[in-house]
Specification:
The chain is about 30% helix and about 15% strand. The chain contains ten helices and 16 strands.
Amino acid sequence: MGNNAQIDDVLRQKTNAAEIAGVVAIAANSSEVIYEAAYGKRDLSKPDPMTADTVFWIASMTKAITTAGAMQLVQQGKLSLDAPIGKVLPDLASPQVLEGFDGNGEPRLRAAKCPITLRHLMTHTAGFAYDMWNGDMVRYLEKTGLPGVTTCKNDALKIPLMSDPGTRWEYGTNIDFVGKAVEAASGKRLGDYLRDHLFMPLGMSDTGFRISQSQRHRLAGMHGRGEDGALAPIPFELEQDPEFEMGGGGLYGTAGDYIKFTQMILNKGRGNGTEVLKPETVALMSQNNIGDLNMTKMTSAVAFATNDVDLFPDMDKKWGLSFLINTARTPEGRSAGSLAWAGLANTYYWIDSARDVAGVILMQVLPFVDRKCLEAFASFERGVYAGLDSTQQAA
């Protein structure tokens, strides 16, 4: 158990020094939890300690869940990966590409060269961008007065593409449209669909778009990293009566719930005694779905929300449906071909099927890819692999 003590020491030290306010970390193999701990405080302005059942805004960790829901409908033939998605979502039937701005600062738009597909949306190759990493998008929203996506207003989705579908990888609002496709194909609101077809079957009873009364007492506060490096509590809460439930980033949940989702992937679609996805569907979701394209560096255009994102800079990075795929072993020990992603407030997970291990680490800090949060994540992940290696040596 020495390696767990190592993880404990780092997480305790980082929270004691208030480098991070509080953290919950959990790791599991396909059959059981192998590490779980909570350190620090839920909120630096309050005395409550962080606990394993603390509720976090998991932000873009929502994406894999929404995509899994959509893949159930693909399995049933209610959605198609490669047919034009405009047949399901008329708003996407004739997409426009932003070419730039004219001399008066007016947006210049043209018709996209090909239709958008569900696969494009799931892999961030449809052409949609987030303003956080795209200055032209920031300018477009300012010019048109459209709301940002975290308002969960339908108008936020009335945005142009930044490139033609299928031509490049760019992180954006794609999975919000996947959520809309789930609603169109199922006839249910996204949260109701996910509850009935993923959360209930997998025993994820503490995850949803709305914060329940019992969850509110266990909610972690948001913190902002100041210029001086110190953390301060900041007000933050997603709209609790949203026009649309944000499939790309709207969920609140616990580490214990999310690890059940990762274990379902490790178990090729099964969890809690139920098959929610077929093994071949999980295999498809877990492989490169962007061909020769690569995930590229994400350069910050909104400093309070995110730092530049340049994960594993010396490695080609691919995308599954809808996971980051590392193509070589990482310094922490993650196998090539593993799946991962994250949430804006420094929540992270990875799923390594080759070693039968997954991990989830949750914090609530802005901006994204905070250095101290990444250090905590790396120490946690290294400790988990050290534990696996020592167990295997002992065996």
